[in-house]
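PROTOCOL LOG
Step 1. Enter all chains and additional molecules of the complex.
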Amino acid sequence: MSAGGKFGPAIAVAARSFVLFALLAAGCAVAAPAPVKVGSKKFTESVILSELLTQLSAANGVPTEHRRELGGTRILFDALLRGDLDAYPEYSGTVRQELLPQLKGGGALGPALSAKGLGFLGPLGFDDTYAIGMPEALAQKLGIRRISDLAAHPELRLGFSHEFLDRQDGWPGLRARYGLARLKARGLDHDLAYRAIASGQLDATDLYSTDAEIAEHHLRVLEDDRHYFPTYEALVLYRADLATRAPEALAAWRRLVGQITASDMIAMNAAVKLGHRSEASVASDFLARKLSVRTAPVAAEGLGHLLWRVTCAHLFLVGVSLLAAILFGLPLGILAAKWRRLGEGVLAVVGVVQTLPSLALLVFMIPLLGIGTWPAIVALFLYSLLPIVRNTHAGLVGITPDLRDSAQALGLTARATLWEIELPLASRSILAGIKTSAVINIGTATLGALIGAGGYGEPILTGIRLDSAALILEGAIPAALMALTAQLLFGLAERWLVPRGLRIGKRSG
Amino acid sequence: MFELLGVSKRFGATVALAPLDLRVQPSETLVLIGTSGSGKSTLLRLLIGLEAPDTGVVRFEGAPVRPAQAAALRRRLGYVIQGGGLFPHLTARQNVTLLARHLGWDAPRLDARVAMLAELVQLPKALLGRYPLQLSGGQAQRVSLMRGLMADPQVLLLDEPLGALDPITRYELQADLRNIFDALRKTVVMVTHDLAEAAFFADRILLMREGRVVQDGTFEDLLARPAEPFVTQFVRAQHAPVEARR
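Step 2. Run joint prediction.
Step 3. Record the structure below.
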């Protein structure tokens, strides 16, 4: 009889199912990376601009990948510096105010950027500056035309995008310049702000001057009478080494300079956000009309294909990070149970990791690992550790003293005691920990889309941006189903892994 | 068999065992008796190395017993505790054979030994496939005894083996246990708080109180030649309920 007893085969079953999973993940083959990678921020205009760049260079024979809808300015800029991206659309004001603060007072962008190994193309033609907008009817009623008029109405409910709320050239500066200290502002997603305005829950919000919704929601753009907002000319930031690596791409992109007017941009934004067309086809139309560039016809991605693709990506994120968390979490839990001092330390550390907001953890990963799948996996791995470590520890520590003594008195080796007695007795608790981890992991992995890791977060982010409940559900429903499936599978796994003797009830008599 | 020299043990501020010298002779049945907290279980746990002495040394067949390297030594000792201490995830048979399988016994040898022990402890063979939760208290204790005897140890250490049983089961098992001891002629050290039980099993009784041996002798010694008033008090306390009915 094998030394592993009943638990040995169970381990083998677990190992086999992981191999099966690895094969499945391999079946979801990942395409080879394109030589040029263009990024976009998670708002429509940025996605359209990047789509223009992607299609232009592709039409000139440079395969180009578009990494869509990444979390924020800092994420894109860091990814550009690291080389995870080769180019992305940016605004002059953002560069001066936030990315290269030494240029705040003025000065040329070129030298400062080239010192960092970057270059820029532009301006592309339009100026997308910040503005403050409020419903036309309300503005008329209160007689508000200029931003300075707001000071007399501290009762107004302001809602700003998180970025605007925090950054130096956003709300803090605006409030100081206009003396708006009495007004309260809260942060929310830019796309949600329009909905809040439409439903009367907000009175004013920050806008971009090319937003499609300005007309749609009948908003009045307040005059910046103290000239607070700097100009935000659209341009393209790129890595200087692109000039040698893919000069054709740069040459193609250069044709966009000065070609996109503010009304072009508003029209394109409206076509996507209000006309429900894809960014790719809107960009393709623009290129044909304005630059006479024919791009390959863009077929919209079918629902089936989209679901398969994001399911694969999500499964990969969850599977790899969870597997790693099990491989590290189990031994950590065992160590923590065996050496109490060490155990307290280990539990404290993984506990602290758990208290970090998942979004923050993702962003911390960027300077270390860049953007994309692997930093997301590392963040998810760290996030999945606590339930596994804690439940392994609790399961082992919770073994009653009489069983512990019996095992010791039997004269088994420490190793045999662990495998034959302690782990089987703790198996239910350990499995419950892994189950908790899996469910948390599947939910949290939707945030991976913010750093370009794909998965179910991708349709969710796009859905929020386009105000499309259907798209949000295309990500949210499968994510919920995956979590339910995981619950179900772990329920079945329990029958395999938890020894029968622990599952039967006490017999009467 | 066992030799203890100046062995003492304390848990925090509590003295569990005052310095003690003791010899356990081969083939004798020694019963440790006393009130709760008298140190009798601690003494048993010291014998098998589940506790390390604070002072002094415990020797088994001349070799010192230390918890760290006690695994090999423990295989020569059988240990049975109150309630049986059976592993709930293993069947009765798996509980009994766990160590032997680790020592690499082959199937015929395992089967023969299990059959022999089931016969000895009078456990119906059909029960061997059951899990501990499916066994009654008496059955579990018989399985535990089989587990303790599996590797044919030289010594059997029992910590209140009949403690958790109802009176009828207890009476049956008591008789069976006595027969087993007589058949095997092993050295037995047993802990109990029941004087009648001690009298029933013991060649020699160690009456303990607050970590100290009050008297070391036969049951008759306790009755006829009490070492101090506490011995008489203890004997009387155990008899009182029955006496009161007479």
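Step 4. Note key features.
Chain A touches chain B at residues 1, 3, 5-7, 402-403, 405-413, 416, 420-421, 424-425, 427, 499-502, 504-507, 509 (CB under 8 Å).
Chain A has three domains: 7-28+302-503, 36-124+232-291, 130-221.
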